[in-house]
Specification:
The protein is of the alpha+beta class. About 25% of the residues lie in helices and about 25% in strands. The structure holds biotin.
């Protein structure tokens, strides 16, 4: 199914074992379960469909069969508390890298990262819509992380509630994409960015800044409004309101107005 060409996995951080399921509740739950039973570093669960796909902030992640990518990765790295926000940014940047590599020339100008790690694109009406999301959950007892990634790849119809919010790579670039190629790219690129945080810490912020949506624009986060002026070295979001600058480590960022 996932064609392993030559020694594809050799030297890579993720993908030593890839379990492919036709349908599951949530790949994050499957990886958590396997992690608690000794699954190795870089273990991956990939599903064609999820019945209870989960998003950030307790939201549901729409996961219809056969059109998108839903995968979760076990990372047994010991993350110092100070690096958790950077790691979350690194995963988003890795998803961006993978989608740009898949979609080819011109893709860099069409995709944006919404802090901390959503992938957005502009639709034909000039509205930002989401095409990928990341849910990172920790397993404190095991000092491990479950990194869940969902990418809307070839989906073209949406439930009413998502019609104005969601978009797929197929809708952005007007062609179908190979989901298996995207899986390999995600494992490579996300693995490389997470390793970069381990090696270089906050330098990941410099790599990310020109990919971020809405810098310089009025935004809201958790009831606070201001101008999004950038990130600090720890990956916190900085919002300016008059002479005040506030920092946020979590929350849902929205364009104001
Ligand atoms: C979000 O943007 O709210 C995060 C979405 C994360 C969805 C992925 S799909 C694979 C993995 N399994 C889940 O239940 N959620 C994540």
């Amino acid at each position: 199914m996932l064609e392993q060409k030559g020694n594809w996995w050799s030297g890579r951080r993720y993908g030593c074992v890839i379990r492919v399921l036709k349908e599951t509740d949530s790949t994050n739950d499957d990886v958590r379960w396997a992690g608690e039973r000794g699954a190795p570093q870089g273990y991956v669960v990939l599903a064609h469909a999820q019945k209870k796909g989960r998003g950030r902030m307790g939201r549901r992640w729409e996961s219809p069969p056969g059109v998108n990518v839903y995968l979760s990765i076990l990372d047994r790295m010991k993350v110092p508390m100070t690096q958790t926000p950077l790691l979350s940014l690194a995963v988003g940047l890795g998803v961006f890298d993978a989608c740009v590599a898949l979609c080819g020339e011109g893709a860099e100008e069409k995709l944006w990262i919404k802090w901390p790690n959503d992938l957005l694109a502009l639709d034909a009406m000039g509205k930002y819509r989401k095409c990928a999301g990341v849910l990172i959950e920790s397993l404190p007892a095991l000092q491990s992380l479950v990194i869940g990634i969902g990418v809307n790849v070839n989906q073209i119809t949406w439930p009413l509630a998502l019609e104005e919010e969601a978009i797929s790579l197929c809708q952005i670039f007007q062609r179908d994409f190979d989901r298996w190629q995207l899986v390999q790219l995600l494992l490579d690129k996300v693995g490389a960015r997470v390793s970069q945080v381990e090696a270089e810490g906050s330098r990941i912020v410099d790599c990310l800044l020109n990919r971020l949506a809405w810098i310089g624009r009025p935004v809201t986060i958790d009831g606070f409004a201001g101008v999004f002026i950038g990130l600090d070295g720890g990956g916190a979001l900085c919002i300016q309101d008059g002479w005040k600058v506030r920092k946020f480590w979590s929350g849902t960022l929205r364009l104001a107005g």
